[in-house]
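Operator note (shift B, R.M.): manual run for Cytochrome P450 requested after the automated queue skipped it. Running by hand, logging everything below so the morning shift can see what happened. Input copied straight from the record, untouched. If output looks odd, do not overwrite the archive copy; leave it for review.
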Amino acid sequence: RKKPHPLPPGPPADPIIGHVRHIPTKSPELTYMQWGKQFNTDIIYMSLLGQGVIILNKAEDAIALLDRRGSKYSDRPRFHFFQEQGWIKSLTLFSPGPAFRKHRKMYTASFTPAKCVQYQKAQIQEAGKLARRVMDNPEDWMLQTVAYSTAVVLQIAYGIEVKGKDDPYVKLANDVSESISTSGAVGVTMVDVLPFTRNLPNWFRLIPSLNWARSLIPVIREMHELPYEYVKSQMVNSSLSSALPFEAKGFCHRQSTAATISIFVLAMVLSPDVQQKAHAEIDAVVGVDRLPTFADRPNLPFVEKVLQELFRWHSSVPLSNCADVLDILDIPHIVTEDDEYKGYLIPKGKCSTYITSYDSRAFVIANSYAINRDECRYNNPASFNPDRYTPITEGGEGAPQPVGQFGFGRRICPGQHLGEASVWAAIVTTLATLEISKARDSNGELSAPDPKFSTGLTSHAERFPCVIKRRSERARELLVNL
Ligand code: HEM
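Run finished. Output pasted below as returned.
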């Protein structure tokens, strides 16, 4: 008999519970990267109460498995907890099949680079409003980035105008994000482990996760239906003739756009020379008498490098598809057949606990943080250096573009072109009109913040002191009427 391939290496596990005790609750992407070095492996295997989890720390492995062997690696786990909440309508949770193909096709067709051109005007307009609101109330800048990202998605998909951070739609989207991030141990709640409990009536209150899931049904329903109802009412009033095929995931996926903008603000505080260079490029190309538009994008190569460096330096979705299996960010890929790769078994399997046996095909998670901080790909990967992308023919180091910030394979983010353009519009308008700098500490000294990033729904820069001022009176005049 052929000897079975071994599982990929990983940290030592405890009996029965496996690696549950070892899973970090803060910045798991960093721990997985350290484990890779400690156990001398690019592919890590963990077991959480029998649920297999595979972490890919190298670009070549993520591409080889999730992209090239996409037919085996494109399914999503069945999360009964989320289904109970009403997330069933979300493309993110669909398994490959006719409905998945239909929804993906509608999604990708609406957000091709060519289609995204028609949304640029709305993006630039909203970016101007973001800069004006931040200019007026700099301490609110983080909340305003969330309002901006929500505004772009709602404006484009439903024709809804969002009025700043206190808008009811921003509140609804925040409630949804909150409901996801408080949903706890994804895939291992009682409802997931004992799916038959979903048939229990409402008065049966002994399963807390079931009660919690059911209490969230109204907010998830509202998120799915409210914007759609608005569009329908507008169509009856004939002011709007069509709506994009769009769904809830985009509504709450605005968080990754906002998180990337928060990482930009942090990077500018830490790298004043980069900001100065970007200011100089925009001033030379756009001048000071108008705001930048997408027509300027090809003429602003340094701003483009800043954008790519943001995705590389700290991706807002550092585990490409899942921040932490025990504290949801997004939903991982799963492997649907036993596979063999580099001499290792990538197992599909059943998970047996004392109580039940359930479908637990291994989660496969690409660690895009490790991939983009890989010393074999980048010199001094921790430094924020947009010039690293300058081609070798122009005297630069010709570093490769970041990989995995939008995921991989058949589940790659269908909103990637829209999301990237939204981040570009926000950063170019901010650079044209605002100056971001270090704040003074209690001794009156300029102090550089210690970069810290959240773990959770998406990874944004954690609140840090900074000063944001208008670059000139002219900048204010350009924004005032938006
Ligand atoms: C900078 C902004 C964004 C980033 C960094 C981002 C990142 C990601 C990542 C990493 C995934 C997981 C892919 C995988 O599982 O391999 C994903 C999935 C997804 N994203 Fe985005 N995203 C962004 C913006 C958007 C926007 C604006 C939309 C909607 C218009 C959107 C819609 C989706 C959907 C529907 C999925 C699930 C796809 C599926 O499961 O088939 N995203 N995104």
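Quick read of the result: DSSP finds 18 helices and eleven strands in the chain. Residues 217-236 form the longest helix (20 residues).
Leaving this for review. - R.M.
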